[in-house]
Amino acid sequence: MSYVAVRIAVHDPATAAERRQNAAHGASRGSVPGTMQAPKGRKQTPHLQILAGPCAARMLATCLVLSFAWITCARQKSPDTPQTVSSTLLPATMNSDDPAPKPSINSSRAMQYVRDVVAFGPRPIGSPNHKKLETYITSHLKGVPVEDDAFIAETPEGKFPVRNIIAKFPGTRDGIIVIAGHYDTNYPLRNTGYVGANDGGSSTAILLELANQLRGKKRDGYSVWLLWTDGEEAVKQWSATDSLYGTRHLAEKWQKDGTLKKIKAFLLTDMIGDADLNIEQDMNSTPWLENVVLQAATRLGYQSHFFGRSIPVEDDHLPFVHMGVPSADLIDLDYGYNNVFHHTPQDTLDKLSPQSLEIVGSVLMETVRLLDKM
Predict the structure, then answer these.
(1) Residues 239-265: tens digit of each pLDDT
(2) By three-state DSSP, how is residue 93 classified?
(3) Based on the number of CB atoms within 10 Å of its own CB, is 327 exposed (0-12), middle (13-18) or buried (19 or more)?
(4) Are 222 and 264 contacting, i.e. CB atoms less than 8 angstroms apart?
(5) d(CA 197, CA 352)
(6) How many Cα atoms sit within 13 Å of 156 on the Cβ side?
(7) What is the pTM of this model?
(8) Is 5 part of a structural domain of the chain?
Protein backbone atom coordinates (compact mmCIF):
# COMPACT_ATOMS: atom_id res chain seq x y z
CA MET A 1 0.00 0.00 0.00
CA SER A 2 1.08 3.60 -0.41
CA TYR A 3 0.30 6.83 1.40
CA VAL A 4 0.16 10.46 0.32
CA ALA A 5 1.35 13.05 2.82
CA VAL A 6 0.32 16.69 2.52
CA ARG A 7 1.70 19.12 5.10
CA ILE A 8 0.19 22.49 6.07
CA ALA A 9 1.26 24.96 8.74
CA VAL A 10 -0.60 24.88 12.05
CA HIS A 11 -0.84 27.31 14.89
CA ASP A 12 -0.15 26.04 18.40
CA PRO A 13 -2.07 28.13 20.98
CA ALA A 14 0.04 26.96 23.93
CA THR A 15 1.03 29.68 26.34
CA ALA A 16 4.61 30.41 27.31
CA ALA A 17 3.88 29.06 30.77
CA GLU A 18 2.65 25.78 29.28
CA ARG A 19 5.79 25.48 27.18
CA ARG A 20 7.99 26.00 30.23
CA GLN A 21 6.00 23.39 32.13
CA ASN A 22 6.26 20.87 29.29
CA ALA A 23 9.97 21.54 28.92
CA ALA A 24 10.54 20.82 32.59
CA HIS A 25 8.37 17.70 32.30
CA GLY A 26 10.46 16.37 29.43
CA ALA A 27 13.68 16.62 31.44
CA SER A 28 12.71 13.53 33.43
CA ARG A 29 12.71 10.77 30.87
CA GLY A 30 10.70 11.79 27.87
CA SER A 31 11.03 14.35 25.19
CA VAL A 32 14.14 16.45 25.15
CA PRO A 33 13.63 19.62 27.25
CA GLY A 34 11.92 22.26 25.17
CA THR A 35 10.06 19.81 22.91
CA MET A 36 6.40 20.76 22.70
CA GLN A 37 3.84 18.02 23.29
CA ALA A 38 0.26 18.89 22.37
CA PRO A 39 -2.06 17.51 25.05
CA LYS A 40 -5.15 15.58 24.08
CA GLY A 41 -8.24 17.67 23.56
CA ARG A 42 -6.48 20.76 22.26
CA LYS A 43 -6.93 20.82 18.52
CA GLN A 44 -4.37 22.33 16.22
CA THR A 45 -6.25 24.24 13.55
CA PRO A 46 -4.87 25.51 10.23
CA HIS A 47 -3.71 29.11 10.55
CA LEU A 48 -4.79 30.86 7.35
CA GLN A 49 -4.43 34.58 6.68
CA ILE A 50 -7.27 36.03 4.58
CA LEU A 51 -6.16 38.47 1.89
CA ALA A 52 -8.18 40.66 -0.43
CA GLY A 53 -8.40 40.47 -4.23
CA PRO A 54 -9.11 37.80 -6.85
CA CYS A 55 -5.59 36.38 -6.66
CA ALA A 56 -5.94 35.96 -2.92
CA ALA A 57 -9.29 34.26 -3.47
CA ARG A 58 -7.67 31.72 -5.76
CA MET A 59 -4.92 31.15 -3.18
CA LEU A 60 -7.50 30.62 -0.47
CA ALA A 61 -9.41 28.16 -2.63
CA THR A 62 -6.20 26.23 -3.25
CA CYS A 63 -5.45 26.14 0.47
CA LEU A 64 -8.93 24.84 1.22
CA VAL A 65 -8.53 22.05 -1.35
CA LEU A 66 -5.16 21.10 0.13
CA SER A 67 -6.63 21.21 3.62
CA PHE A 68 -9.39 18.82 2.55
CA ALA A 69 -6.84 16.49 0.97
CA TRP A 70 -4.76 16.58 4.13
CA ILE A 71 -7.75 15.73 6.32
CA THR A 72 -8.79 12.78 4.16
CA CYS A 73 -5.35 11.39 3.29
CA ALA A 74 -3.00 12.08 6.18
CA ARG A 75 -2.28 9.04 8.32
CA GLN A 76 -2.68 9.97 11.99
CA LYS A 77 -4.64 8.89 15.03
CA SER A 78 -6.08 12.19 16.17
CA PRO A 79 -6.13 15.83 15.08
CA ASP A 80 -4.03 16.98 17.99
CA THR A 81 -0.87 14.95 17.36
CA PRO A 82 2.05 17.36 16.93
CA GLN A 83 3.72 15.43 14.12
CA THR A 84 2.54 12.71 11.77
CA VAL A 85 4.45 9.49 11.28
CA SER A 86 7.31 9.76 8.82
CA SER A 87 6.52 8.33 5.40
CA THR A 88 9.74 6.29 5.60
CA LEU A 89 8.19 4.28 8.45
CA LEU A 90 4.95 3.41 6.69
CA PRO A 91 4.82 -0.20 5.47
CA ALA A 92 5.05 -0.24 1.67
CA THR A 93 3.34 -3.61 1.32
CA MET A 94 1.94 -6.24 3.63
CA ASN A 95 1.80 -9.91 2.71
CA SER A 96 -1.85 -10.72 3.41
CA ASP A 97 -1.16 -14.37 2.49
CA ASP A 98 1.34 -14.88 5.32
CA PRO A 99 0.25 -18.24 6.77
CA ALA A 100 1.98 -17.76 10.11
CA PRO A 101 -0.41 -17.72 13.08
CA LYS A 102 -0.85 -14.35 14.72
CA PRO A 103 0.82 -14.33 18.14
CA SER A 104 -1.07 -13.57 21.32
CA ILE A 105 -0.27 -13.48 25.02
CA ASN A 106 -2.25 -14.16 28.18
CA SER A 107 -3.17 -10.57 29.01
CA SER A 108 -5.11 -11.52 32.14
CA ARG A 109 -2.04 -13.22 33.54
CA ALA A 110 0.14 -10.26 32.56
CA MET A 111 -2.24 -7.91 34.37
CA GLN A 112 -2.07 -10.10 37.45
CA TYR A 113 1.70 -9.77 37.36
CA VAL A 114 1.26 -5.99 37.44
CA ARG A 115 -1.00 -6.32 40.49
CA ASP A 116 1.56 -8.54 42.23
CA VAL A 117 4.37 -6.08 41.48
CA VAL A 118 2.38 -3.06 42.68
CA ALA A 119 1.48 -4.91 45.88
CA PHE A 120 5.13 -4.65 46.95
CA GLY A 121 4.69 -0.86 47.16
CA PRO A 122 7.44 1.62 46.16
CA ARG A 123 10.44 -0.23 44.69
CA PRO A 124 13.36 2.21 44.34
CA ILE A 125 16.91 0.89 44.15
CA GLY A 126 18.38 -0.04 47.51
CA SER A 127 15.00 -0.62 49.18
CA PRO A 128 13.70 -3.82 50.82
CA ASN A 129 10.74 -3.85 48.41
CA HIS A 130 13.14 -3.72 45.47
CA LYS A 131 14.92 -6.78 46.84
CA LYS A 132 11.59 -8.59 47.23
CA LEU A 133 10.76 -7.86 43.61
CA GLU A 134 14.11 -9.25 42.47
CA THR A 135 13.22 -12.52 44.21
CA TYR A 136 9.72 -12.45 42.70
CA ILE A 137 11.11 -12.07 39.16
CA THR A 138 13.69 -14.84 39.47
CA SER A 139 11.14 -17.18 41.09
CA HIS A 140 9.11 -17.00 37.88
CA LEU A 141 12.11 -18.01 35.78
CA LYS A 142 12.55 -21.58 37.03
CA GLY A 143 14.15 -23.80 34.42
CA VAL A 144 15.41 -20.85 32.38
CA PRO A 145 19.10 -19.91 32.20
CA VAL A 146 19.40 -16.63 34.15
CA GLU A 147 22.40 -14.32 34.30
CA ASP A 148 22.93 -11.42 36.70
CA ASP A 149 24.75 -8.18 36.05
CA ALA A 150 25.13 -6.87 39.59
CA PHE A 151 27.29 -3.92 40.64
CA ILE A 152 27.44 -0.91 42.95
CA ALA A 153 26.39 2.37 41.33
CA GLU A 154 27.83 5.72 42.37
CA THR A 155 24.95 8.22 42.51
CA PRO A 156 24.39 11.79 43.79
CA GLU A 157 22.72 10.20 46.84
CA GLY A 158 25.48 7.69 47.56
CA LYS A 159 26.21 4.11 46.58
CA PHE A 160 23.41 1.73 45.61
CA PRO A 161 23.29 -1.93 44.56
CA VAL A 162 22.03 -2.37 40.99
CA ARG A 163 21.06 -5.71 39.45
CA ASN A 164 20.15 -6.37 35.85
CA ILE A 165 18.43 -9.74 35.36
CA ILE A 166 18.80 -11.56 32.03
CA ALA A 167 16.75 -14.65 31.07
CA LYS A 168 18.09 -16.47 28.00
CA PHE A 169 16.08 -18.46 25.45
CA PRO A 170 18.45 -20.00 22.89
CA GLY A 171 17.69 -20.08 19.18
CA THR A 172 19.09 -21.85 16.15
CA ARG A 173 20.42 -18.73 14.42
CA ASP A 174 23.60 -16.89 15.31
CA GLY A 175 22.49 -13.66 16.95
CA ILE A 176 20.49 -12.20 19.84
CA ILE A 177 17.28 -10.20 20.14
CA VAL A 178 17.07 -8.40 23.47
CA ILE A 179 13.68 -7.38 24.89
CA ALA A 180 14.08 -5.12 27.90
CA GLY A 181 12.17 -3.12 30.50
CA HIS A 182 13.01 -1.59 33.87
CA TYR A 183 11.67 -2.83 37.22
CA ASP A 184 12.81 -0.10 39.62
CA THR A 185 10.55 2.81 40.58
CA ASN A 186 11.24 6.52 40.98
CA TYR A 187 13.63 7.20 43.87
CA PRO A 188 12.70 10.83 44.72
CA LEU A 189 9.03 9.74 45.10
CA ARG A 190 9.85 6.85 47.41
CA ASN A 191 8.06 8.40 50.43
CA THR A 192 4.92 9.56 48.60
CA GLY A 193 3.16 6.23 48.17
CA TYR A 194 4.22 6.12 44.51
CA VAL A 195 3.86 2.53 43.23
CA GLY A 196 4.66 2.96 39.51
CA ALA A 197 1.94 0.69 38.16
CA ASN A 198 2.65 1.79 34.60
CA ASP A 199 6.19 3.14 34.99
CA GLY A 200 8.06 0.06 36.17
CA GLY A 201 5.13 -2.27 36.82
CA SER A 202 3.90 -2.79 33.26
CA SER A 203 7.36 -3.42 31.83
CA THR A 204 8.19 -5.90 34.58
CA ALA A 205 4.95 -7.77 33.94
CA ILE A 206 5.14 -7.94 30.15
CA LEU A 207 8.61 -9.51 30.35
CA LEU A 208 7.33 -12.13 32.79
CA GLU A 209 4.51 -12.99 30.39
CA LEU A 210 6.90 -13.14 27.44
CA ALA A 211 8.97 -15.60 29.46
CA ASN A 212 5.87 -17.81 29.67
CA GLN A 213 5.46 -17.63 25.89
CA LEU A 214 9.10 -18.55 25.23
CA ARG A 215 9.69 -21.14 27.95
CA GLY A 216 10.06 -24.75 26.79
CA LYS A 217 9.70 -23.96 23.07
CA LYS A 218 12.36 -24.56 20.46
CA ARG A 219 13.24 -21.28 18.77
CA ASP A 220 13.89 -21.58 15.05
CA GLY A 221 15.46 -18.15 14.91
CA TYR A 222 17.65 -15.81 16.90
CA SER A 223 18.18 -16.29 20.62
CA VAL A 224 15.89 -14.08 22.70
CA TRP A 225 17.16 -12.53 25.92
CA LEU A 226 14.68 -10.93 28.30
CA LEU A 227 16.32 -8.14 30.26
CA TRP A 228 14.88 -6.63 33.44
CA THR A 229 16.92 -3.44 33.75
CA ASP A 230 17.64 -1.76 37.07
CA GLY A 231 18.54 1.78 38.04
CA GLU A 232 16.71 3.32 35.08
CA GLU A 233 15.25 6.12 37.18
CA ALA A 234 17.24 9.14 38.30
CA VAL A 235 18.20 9.21 41.96
CA LYS A 236 18.14 13.00 42.21
CA GLN A 237 17.53 14.72 38.86
CA TRP A 238 17.51 13.20 35.39
CA SER A 239 20.80 13.73 33.55
CA ALA A 240 23.27 11.80 31.45
CA THR A 241 25.05 10.64 34.61
CA ASP A 242 22.04 10.34 36.95
CA SER A 243 19.87 7.84 35.05
CA LEU A 244 20.09 4.58 33.13
CA TYR A 245 22.59 3.13 35.60
CA GLY A 246 21.84 -0.47 34.70
CA THR A 247 21.93 -0.24 30.92
CA ARG A 248 24.95 2.06 30.85
CA HIS A 249 26.86 -0.55 32.85
CA LEU A 250 25.55 -3.52 30.86
CA ALA A 251 26.18 -1.97 27.44
CA GLU A 252 29.80 -1.30 28.40
CA LYS A 253 30.17 -4.82 29.79
CA TRP A 254 28.72 -6.42 26.66
CA GLN A 255 30.94 -4.27 24.47
CA LYS A 256 34.02 -5.51 26.30
CA ASP A 257 33.11 -9.23 26.24
CA GLY A 258 31.94 -9.24 22.60
CA THR A 259 28.22 -9.76 23.29
CA LEU A 260 27.25 -6.39 21.84
CA LYS A 261 28.20 -7.27 18.26
CA LYS A 262 25.91 -10.32 18.42
CA ILE A 263 22.80 -8.28 19.21
CA LYS A 264 20.59 -7.95 16.13
CA ALA A 265 17.94 -5.79 17.82
CA PHE A 266 17.28 -4.18 21.20
CA LEU A 267 13.54 -3.77 21.89
CA LEU A 268 12.65 -1.69 24.94
CA THR A 269 9.28 -1.52 26.69
CA ASP A 270 8.35 1.28 29.09
CA MET A 271 5.00 2.62 30.30
CA ILE A 272 3.04 0.28 28.03
CA GLY A 273 0.00 -0.43 30.24
CA ASP A 274 -1.91 2.84 29.77
CA ALA A 275 -5.57 2.06 28.95
CA ASP A 276 -5.40 4.81 26.30
CA LEU A 277 -2.40 3.29 24.54
CA ASN A 278 -0.45 5.45 22.08
CA ILE A 279 3.09 4.21 21.43
CA GLU A 280 5.39 7.03 20.33
CA GLN A 281 7.56 7.09 17.24
CA ASP A 282 10.85 7.67 19.05
CA MET A 283 13.24 9.86 17.09
CA ASN A 284 16.19 8.39 19.05
CA SER A 285 15.38 4.85 17.92
CA THR A 286 16.63 3.09 14.78
CA PRO A 287 14.25 3.89 11.88
CA TRP A 288 14.36 0.52 10.13
CA LEU A 289 13.64 -1.31 13.39
CA GLU A 290 10.75 1.02 14.16
CA ASN A 291 9.47 0.14 10.71
CA VAL A 292 9.54 -3.56 11.57
CA VAL A 293 7.56 -2.81 14.75
CA LEU A 294 5.00 -0.88 12.69
CA GLN A 295 4.73 -3.76 10.20
CA ALA A 296 4.12 -6.15 13.10
CA ALA A 297 1.43 -3.87 14.57
CA THR A 298 -0.21 -3.47 11.15
CA ARG A 299 -0.38 -7.20 10.51
CA LEU A 300 -2.12 -7.67 13.87
CA GLY A 301 -4.51 -4.75 13.29
CA TYR A 302 -3.03 -2.61 16.07
CA GLN A 303 -1.44 0.13 13.94
CA SER A 304 -3.79 2.82 15.28
CA HIS A 305 -2.00 2.51 18.64
CA PHE A 306 1.45 3.15 17.15
CA PHE A 307 3.44 6.17 16.03
CA GLY A 308 0.74 8.83 16.06
CA ARG A 309 3.37 11.41 16.97
CA SER A 310 7.15 11.70 16.81
CA ILE A 311 9.24 12.76 19.82
CA PRO A 312 12.81 12.08 20.98
CA VAL A 313 12.86 9.87 24.08
CA GLU A 314 15.66 9.41 26.59
CA ASP A 315 15.36 5.88 27.95
CA ASP A 316 17.19 2.64 28.62
CA HIS A 317 17.91 2.06 24.92
CA LEU A 318 20.24 5.08 24.58
CA PRO A 319 23.45 3.39 25.80
CA PHE A 320 22.92 0.73 23.13
CA VAL A 321 21.97 3.26 20.46
CA HIS A 322 25.20 5.14 21.14
CA MET A 323 27.15 1.92 20.63
CA GLY A 324 25.53 1.20 17.28
CA VAL A 325 22.99 -1.44 18.32
CA PRO A 326 19.69 -1.26 16.36
CA SER A 327 17.16 -0.23 18.99
CA ALA A 328 13.48 0.65 19.31
CA ASP A 329 11.72 2.09 22.36
CA LEU A 330 8.06 1.12 22.76
CA ILE A 331 6.81 3.78 25.16
CA ASP A 332 3.62 5.78 25.71
CA LEU A 333 4.53 9.19 27.13
CA ASP A 334 0.99 10.53 26.96
CA TYR A 335 -0.09 9.05 30.29
CA GLY A 336 -3.24 10.97 31.15
CA TYR A 337 -4.05 14.49 29.94
CA ASN A 338 -0.72 16.09 29.02
CA ASN A 339 1.11 13.15 30.65
CA VAL A 340 -0.26 14.23 34.05
CA PHE A 341 0.06 10.81 35.75
CA HIS A 342 3.74 10.27 34.88
CA HIS A 343 5.95 10.34 37.98
CA THR A 344 3.08 11.07 40.35
CA PRO A 345 1.35 8.97 43.04
CA GLN A 346 -1.56 8.75 40.57
CA ASP A 347 0.35 6.14 38.55
CA THR A 348 -1.96 3.39 39.80
CA LEU A 349 -3.59 0.17 38.61
CA ASP A 350 -6.91 1.77 37.67
CA LYS A 351 -5.22 3.63 34.77
CA LEU A 352 -4.07 0.38 33.13
CA SER A 353 -5.73 -2.14 30.82
CA PRO A 354 -5.02 -5.82 30.01
CA GLN A 355 -5.80 -4.98 26.37
CA SER A 356 -2.83 -2.61 26.22
CA LEU A 357 -0.57 -5.37 27.55
CA GLU A 358 -2.03 -7.72 24.94
CA ILE A 359 -1.30 -5.23 22.15
CA VAL A 360 2.30 -4.60 23.13
CA GLY A 361 3.08 -8.20 24.00
CA SER A 362 1.66 -9.52 20.74
CA VAL A 363 3.43 -6.87 18.67
CA LEU A 364 6.71 -7.74 20.35
CA MET A 365 6.27 -11.43 19.54
CA GLU A 366 5.37 -10.60 15.94
CA THR A 367 8.36 -8.26 15.68
CA VAL A 368 10.63 -11.09 16.80
CA ARG A 369 9.06 -13.36 14.18
CA LEU A 370 9.69 -10.81 11.43
CA LEU A 371 13.28 -10.27 12.59
CA ASP A 372 13.87 -14.03 12.53
CA LYS A 373 13.00 -13.97 8.81
CA MET A 374 15.39 -11.14 7.97
Answers:
(1) 999 999 999 999 999 999 999 999 999
(2) coil
(3) buried
(4) yes
(5) 8
(6) 13
(7) 0.78
(8) no
